[in-house]
Amino acid sequence: MIRLEGVSKYYPTRFGPKYVLKDLNIDLPDGRDVAILGANGAGKSTLLRLLGGIDFPSYGKIHSDRFISWPLALASGFQRNMSGRENVRFVCRIHGVRETEAIEEYVKEFCELGASFELPVGSYSSGMSAKYSFAVSMGFDFDTYLMDEITSVGDAAFRKKCSQALRDKRESSNIILVSHSENMVREQCNAAILLAYGRAEFYESVDRALYRYRNL
Amino acid sequence: MKARSAFSIQRDVIFAIFLREMNSRFSTYTFGNIWILLEPVLMMSVFVVIFGVRGRGEFGYVEPPVFILASFLPFRLLWQSPMRRNMKAMGGARGLLGFRQVRLFDVFLTRSLVEAGIFLVSGTVLVLGMLWLGFDAVPMDPLKTLYYGMILWLFACSVGILACIVADFAREVEKTIGILTMPLMFLSAVFYPMTIIPTAYRGLFAMNPLVHANELIREAWLPLYESPVADPGYLYVWTLCAMALSIASYRLRWQRMVAR
Q1: Do A95 and B28 touch (CB under 8 A)?
Q2: How confident is the model at residue B64 (pLDDT cuts 50, 70, 90)?
Q3: CATH architecture of the domain with range A1-69+143-155+170-216
Q4: Distance, in angstroms, between A188 CA and closest chain B CA?
Q5: Interchain pair A95, B1: CB under 8 A
Q6: Virtual CA dihedral for B78, B87, B107, A13, nearest 10 degrees?
Q7: Structure ipTM over 0.90, yes or no
Q8: Contacts of residue B149, Cβ cutoff 8 Å, sequence gap at least 6
Q9: pTM to 2 decimals?
């Protein structure tokens, strides 16, 4: 269970504090794969960053006893002048994995980058980095995976592979997904949070959430 | 995944950042990681030669190259480098902060420890090199030298953290400190002992805590030197204040600093 208690987040701007999220109270039950829906600027990515623990609510608390992945976005924290393999090692080390060989090989095989895996991450195209970040997170066993639009990039074959991998992961863990693709949401999620008008609503049914989302 | 204690997470993270920093700093050079030692050793050698050979027999109680080594080595590697590395920590930390395990403080801690390590190793190399060339460069009281070096390092790291936090809302601080570095070096009794300052001005010079650090290290390192102003208590107070202020402001600001 991930519980948000009175979570507000604002960013200071020169017009005063700009609230992105205001007083959210949501429980995300275990065993649910949640989509976060909302218009641009509604705070989807911010909510994901809060859940991922790399940004912090201005007020309120987030309680969780789960292993949550880092928020998987296109520009996640990889060192541009280190090779793909070295970045995997870094991620392994901060997660306390000493034997990095197995994960390195898994990621190399999964991301299908071939020799580029040994080249600096900065030289990857956007599609390649999406594949790469996705593959890295699949190398670890989290309880909850956070994904920010990551699956929308990449070629058709890889998207298929991603869907398959996510389906397998969902047997044992959950995902929280930000996506504008309705197909993706329908396929991978069985609950949704709709962010609109500064509020958040939790929907047990994806179809209802999508209906509301379309008619905002 | 299995849960780790806070301590073991921090240990893992610091080790990971350490390797990553080594990589990002030196991987583009032909000689790679050797530069981490080559750079300070080369720079110190140049200074020792330029300033040391010029003033032959100026001091009477110590050979000039040894004098320069005993003053400039700690000042450069325990004050300037850690201070500047910590001040600029945000630039390198941006990417790292995309992982929840990594906190800004780990970046400070890693950089501070790396700088201390560089001092110890390149100091040893330089002292051995000077011995080989026939100078008596070994500190008279090695433990005391290291102890005062450690105080200077703590002071430098705290000032660096403080500068980094202030620079987060006033970038000018970085520029100001950059401009002040040179004059501060000339005011900090690095290339001269306090004994050559006229008695009337010594009090003024002694307001600067770095003067005390340099003089204390010099007293411990050179057998015959006795400083007219050095006061450990004064340095401790400055160090404690800097540490308290930097940790307190870090606690107040760190969440804002990592927010985008």
Answers
A1: no
A2: confident
A3: 3-Layer(aba) Sandwich (3.40)
A4: 23
A5: yes
A6: 170
A7: no
A8: B74, B78, B119, B217
A9: 0.90
